[in-house]
Amino acid sequence: MPGQRSITQAEKLAEAKLGGIPVRHEQMAVVANIYRAASAVRQHLENSVLRGADLTWTAFVVLWVVWIWGESETRHVAEEAGISKGTLTGVSRTLEKRGLLRRAGHPTDGRLVLLSLTEEGEELMRRVFPAFNEEEAFVAAQLDVDECRSVADGLRRVVLQVEEHGEERRLALLDGAAPAPRRSGRRPQS
Amino acid sequence: MPGQRSITQAEKLAEAKLGGIPVRHEQMAVVANIYRAASAVRQHLENSVLRGADLTWTAFVVLWVVWIWGESETRHVAEEAGISKGTLTGVSRTLEKRGLLRRAGHPTDGRLVLLSLTEEGEELMRRVFPAFNEEEAFVAAQLDVDECRSVADGLRRVVLQVEEHGEERRLALLDGAAPAPRRSGRRPQS
DNA sequence: TCCGTACAATTTGGAGCCGAACGACATCTG
DNA sequence: CAGATGTCGTTCGGCTCCAAATTGTACGGA
Fold it and tell me: CA nearest A60: which of B9, B57, B35?
């Protein structure tokens, strides 16, 4: 139902709405499906393995990053996990309360906080990650290994494009104009 | 930096952590990159075109769905936009307050609410969508049209796999056990 | 030693988001 | 035509998230 057909139809309707102004169909389909897939995958993983371990997606990602990279400074963890520093403060404190994560001050630089897993956290990851990876395999079950590689590679190029040229592009678009404040969140100045 | 290399490295570290238990690398890479790409794309679009129009991602998606499909019942809009009914209630009311969306009762079935764009909403979409689509093209600029098609197709298969077999899979995994309540949200019963 | 600057994490404000419970309405059944 | 059952959208509780403002620490030069 909302697969190939409805997306194609949506594109045609969009074109009609624009009175002949051309739409970049393929690029539109990539973005739309990236987002659909991300939601579907996240929801499946949260409702299968993560809920049983009482972890949110973000909490799992944070644990995973620290597990893989070992003791790390919070800003690196936030960057790698794809969340803001502010969010990480809350998440890491929750995980600390649950005894999965340790937060320690840096020995010489008092501004830094180092995150590492507790033994309990390590155990959890040894138990949960294999199940998580099983479900990753499940969601990708309609793709063979080569297709996985090529999809992953295409997505990597999207990420790189944004990381390398996104900032510059945004500046060019605004062209010196005010960056436009965010609707939500704390108000600037006032 | 966090491109091909660091992901591959992460996978090796993960395997080491598991003491030889095999990891499904390619499937893991697909999931990881779907999520990274979704975040990157959303952030870029929010910070470029959407912020200027004072729209969040979700608000834009809702407007887009109603624009494309015309007057629609809320549950269909929620489904198509990939958000819960409860979220849609809030978002649609915000958009109504801003004069972009109309909420009307169904003429014969009093339970339903129909959403449609106001003239102002239509104008906004005619103005914003082309810019949005331009940025979709920008984020996909490293992919040629064929690659776009094949990535989109691969992602579509992921979405279908979850939509068609996800529920069944989750039930099989829990195997009759309690579905494990969500940590957040309103508590059952009590 | 005392600034000023730089950069760290944290706090804070506002919106998003899910899913259980709820109330309103529709429809089926006897 | 009443009650049971089902299906809407809405409400509500708790958590997630971002980014501005804030707080705290480091370190360079006067």
Answer: B35
